[in-house]
Specification:
It is built from 5 helices and 5 strands. The chain is of the alpha/beta class and 197 residues long. It has a single domain (39-195), classed as Ribonuclease H-like superfamily/Ribonuclease H (Nucleotidyltransferase, domain 5, 2-Layer Sandwich), CATH 3.30.420.10.
Length: 197
């Protein structure tokens, strides 16, 4: 059990749970109800190039940030959708962020889609995209989720990174790991400069 993935982008040891504190002959079980839920922030965005047109192609991106006691750990996930609308891409962006978590978490989902936020908070009725809403319901079910809207293209670095990742994935028809790694490094650079003496 040592070093096994905790799911929220970290190992058990990274969140302060030691799996080797008991002898091997003793069963050691941590009751989930006694542990605080890992804190995760998901910033997500969808993009449909040529939205509404016959040749539209779409993709979704989500940036997951696990807020640990000593540092923030980030992961960027994308999904190429092919022909899809911008609204569909926005729903899928929230889905892939939540689907990347393997244990229940306290999650803040940040999106520039009022469609997603208002639908998930019960202010919009689900008239279309029923299969995607069901997927999002399943992805959100294990977690405590707070939905937050942010203005798109307003200089929010994490939102801008997701927008770039979604557009790049839609344009090139799939995930480009080198491009995603570069986006993550760019997000880390301002933080490391601010921490320098």
């Amino acid at each position: 059990m040592s070093g096994s993935s905790f799911g929220c982008l970290v190992s058990l040891s990274m969140i302060g749970v030691s799996c080797r504190s008991q002898p091997r002959t003793t069963s050691h079980r941590v009751e989930p109800a006694l542990m605080p839920l890992p804190q995760v922030r998901i910033v997500c965005d969808g993009s449909s190039l040529g939205n509404g047109g016959e040749s539209a192609v779409a993709a979704a991106a989500a940036l997951l940030s696990h807020i640990g006691p000593a540092k923030v750990t980030r992961k960027l996930v994308v999904e190429y959708l092919g022909p899809a609308t911008n609204q569909q891409a926005e729903i899928v962006a929230a889905c892939i962020g939540l689907e990347a978590l393997f244990v229940p978490c306290q999650v803040q989902v940040v999106t520039d889609s009022t469609y997603v936020v208002k639908t998930m908070t019960g202010r919009f009725r689900r008239r279309a995209n029923q299969d995607l809403w069901r997927r999002l319901d399943r992805a959100a079910a294990p977690h405590h989720v707070a939905w937050q809207w942010t203005r798109g293209h307003a200089g929010h670095p994490e939102q801008e990174a997701c927008d770039r990742a979604a557009r790049h994935t839609a344009k090139y028809g799939g995930s480009d790991e080198a491009f995603l790694a570069r986006l993550l490094r760019q997000l880390e650079e301002p933080a490391s400069r601010a921490a320098a003496p």
